[in-house]
Amino acid sequence: MKKLKTLLVLLLAGQLLHAQQKAPTPPMGYMTWNFYADKITENDIRTIADAMSANGLLKAGFDYIFIDDGWQGGRDNKNNMVPDPKKFPSGMKALCDYVHSKGLKLGIYSDAAQLTCAGYTASLGFEEQDAKTFAGWGIDYLKYDYCDAPSDWQTAIQRYSKMANALANSGRDIVFGICEWGDRSPWLWSKKAGGQLWRISADIRDKWQSKVAPKKPADLHHSGAGILDIVDINTSLHPYAGPGGWNDPDMLVVGLYGRKGPSGDLGGTGCTDTEYQSQMSLWCLMASPLMVSCDVANMNANTRNILFNKDIIAIDQDSLGVQAQCKFKKDDWQVFVKPLQNGDVAVGLLNRGGQSNTITVALSDLGLPFTACQATDVWSKAVTSWNKSVTLKVASHETKVFRLRNK
Length: 407
Known about the structure:
This protein is α/β, with parallel strands linked by helices. The protein has 2 domains: 2-316, TIM Barrel, CATH 3.20.20.70; 325-406, Immunoglobulin-like. The protein is 28% helix and 22% strand. It has helices at 2-17, 33-36, 42-55, 57-60, 92-101, 127-137, 153-168, 220-223, 227-234, 273-285, 301-307, 310-316; strands spanning 28-31, 64-66, 72-75, 81-83, 105-111, 141-145, 175-178, 197-199, 246-248, 290-292, 325-330, 333-339, 345-351, 357-362, 372-377, 383-387, 389-394, 399-406. The strands form 4 sheets. An 8-stranded parallel β-sheet has the order 9-8-7-6-5-2-1-10. Helix 7 (153-168) links the parallel strand 6 and strand 7. The radius of gyration is 21 Å and the shape is globular. Mean pLDDT is 95; it is low at 12-19.
């Protein structure tokens, strides 16, 4: 730990001089990887932008489109990175302008090595040049992956700091997403290294839980991380999240329904709508970035109801920026508590088990500043009174979420 602190001080002094708070609340938007993989095209991005603008996702707060791996076409004769001319014939600047014209922001992807995870051109050794290229196009966000890079944390800090400094000197405010999958405890150093969010786990798959219980988080790279696996990793990381720096548990799989592709690998055969709603609830309680990854142009009613719920989104986007704590875990259920800026408190009750469960919770066990309150169910909108304790029936894999207000 002493070596880590010393290295951060030496490497990041220049970075911190440029520091300003970006991402005061968790970023929200659409990430292309799960649905399009590396086949993403300019026309796909335009279709996504049109759909998000027309169907209400933008109005609900999802204001980014994040282009993941596969957009790259190599480098030109001046070593400037260029988009694939077949996939992006109009160029990235024109696409940025189009996305911005819809009221949206555009994110892009690279890697802190010579090649990306899918084998495309990456940014190692070209950090300053690439950052200025991205800024010149009008890019608003960079997801920076870590495939084909060394396993030690010292090199990771150096490489991420170098790109963060390059972005800070690019002439444009670009949010920086660190993506090394939690293998080097990025919550300990990513904010000082210039990141506004950092992935905390292996890639999410479209499933509730890994069939093989991981002995350590890195095992999920091989068995496939489900919703509950990532919740279990993120539960203890609440001290590290806050305005300008967020634990990132990866994309929402809501509405994918077992689609073939990246999210369908390693047992990703799909979830129930109850499980998808539970993911939305837990991600919002945990103040997570919200990155939709289904087909936004063709969402069914259940998917829309989950993604468009303004009351659960308000909990995620609350300006106090506190990640919920798990106050207690018993048998197959656990309870999360998240204080909110106006004095309200969000409470989530998760039934991890395979059958419905009746849960009794004493308000005193939650550490609340009141013993009687008005409780609004953010999904059903029912309003009830809680006095000292409450007993609730929670379906299998459901997460009930309430906004509590002192009476």
